[in-house]
Task: structure prediction
Amino acid sequence: MSKIRKSLSSMSASLVAILAGLIAGFVILLFSNPSSALKGLTTILIGGWNNGMKGVGQVLYYATPIIMTGLAVGFAFKTGMFNIGATGQLMVGGFVSIYVGVTWTFLPGGLHWVVALIMGAAAGMLWGMIVGVFKALLNVHEVITSIMLNYIALYGINYMVKNSHLFDSLKNQTVNVAASAVIPKAGLDRIFYIAKGRLNDPSAVNAGILIAIGLAVLMYIILNKTTFGFELKACGYNRHASRYAGISENRAIITSMAIAGALAGTAGTLMYLAPASGMHIHVEEVLAAQGFTGIAVALLGMSNPLGIIFSGLFIAHITVGGFYLQSLKYMKEIIEVIIGLIIYFSAFSLLVRDLIAKIGKRKTKKDKQSSKEVTA
Amino acid sequence: MDAVYFLVQQMMFFSIPLLIVALGGMFSERSGVVNIALEGIMVAGAFTSILLISLLQSGMSGQILLLIAIAVAIVTGALFSLLHAYAAINLRSDQTISGTALNMIAPASAIYLARMIQPNGVQQVQFTNTFRIEKVPFLGDIPILGRLLFQNAYITTYIGFIIFGIAAFVLYRTRFGLRLRACGEHPQAADSVGINVYKIRYAGVVISGALAGLGGLVYVIPTSTNFNATVSGYGFLALAVLIFGQWKPLRILGAAFFFGLMKTIASAYSGIPFLRDLGIPSDIYKMVPFIATLIALAFTSKRSQAPRASGVPYDKGLR
Result:
């Protein structure tokens, strides 16, 4: 009972933050162009639905990598670590999956993309594990290792792409992966499309979203239903107490970062092996944004894997809404401002929770009083 | 010898912003508040000050304009950091949350505002660089040292060194510095002797905001002629410099110059005959500072200790 109440109250804190962020966003819309502000707000709220089922499919498509990076950040949070390196782990995973996708064409069709996915996840795992090892054995702060590894990944991958058969020098990006390495659509394109004359115009959604949701559920089970997960969380809550209880702190840190890295690596594979839509690694000196969005997703989802599914979907939803906002002459960057504000307001959660608790208490007091009056 | 002069002059462009921002981060963390928002605050400070330069440059130029821009950058950074201070200190929230929020809000609103304010909805803010000093009078004529530090330089370089001196003095030689460090190590003890922990922490965060805002401007001026809502991860690098520098001014100085030197080599190696002849591709040079830092940290961090209370919200009730 108390568990349900607790999760409800933390959820309401998130909802209050979302509401406050949207109101602030509306105020910005009002300031920049009052005449279409209301229309703008509804466009944001409707999100993917602006373009029927295809739009919804696009939401799922954009949600896929950020749910994964959200998990990567959230899982590490549970062990008390701030994984700011999801972006590097994502790029490493993505690069390896592209390598496998282009090169290992000897694999049979149904197996090729699965192997590419697993190899990408494994690469991300190794990259994340470095952070854990540095933290556990050498006492190097995880934030600094992650930041260093992000840039090492960025420049290293640029170098390797440019100097290999993966490089399409005309487009300054990687070549297409083999058809057998592309993640199948699993029939989702027949649900999420809009009819254009006689032809169907499907969205880019693919089996990746199912994998992401499946992995989120798996992480939920690991964290909440297994001894291993309990140990990880115990280390996050109180390192010294868990050491006293016989939990190996070092092992927890390393495995937690390895799993987080594997999740972020999977984000990379799901991004770069997605069908159509031109997901290639571009040779440029910019860190993949999805890794940083993952931090927002994890915070909004309160680091709970199931919460992360919803927060990832929500952020994708309003991001897609932002694309349609441009037809009203608004800049799509407002969506990022709104997301930032929502995250900022989620910092008020303690305040909101106290407030809710106070209201709840007053109510029960009143109930008691009124029942007393009745008996009197 | 020319190559050395060139390297040192270039190095300042990379090192000084890192130094200023990392020193800012030091004030925040030594007071007990982790400030991961340095990146966002840099963007905010750079945005307002560069926008101001681009609006005023038809009427004025040179050092006066730069000094006005510096003031604007400092004020912007300080004000913007108040958001972080309020969430981290008054609301006792997780300090990574508001930091992340600021990092998201700053670049997005910089683009949004730039496209609103500028004609044609352009997101880059253009400016003309009229701030370079060919040669400082008298000082520029000193043999060796003159060419190293007082030629082809910016006034911001000297401001950076002055800030370093003041920061080290304030932290170790003033009452405020002592109190600041106490609040970062053991705020309960500090409170018990009558120090207002909230006030000191506010001061720490606002100083870090002011310096980070300034650092944003200092980074953009010598390296570019337009501002595109990014400081290319320099805020995060400054965070790394801060940790590498063990939260101590002198070591931060060393770390900032180490990073700056590596960055300079990466970006300017083709102008240095000896390095060009080695035939190492530029991507490798770009990786070197990060790999070198990791290795250095691996050997030096065993006894590393962050300010003990940094990242922990202060709750008076727990005293």
Chain B touches chain A through 48 residues (CB under 8 Å).
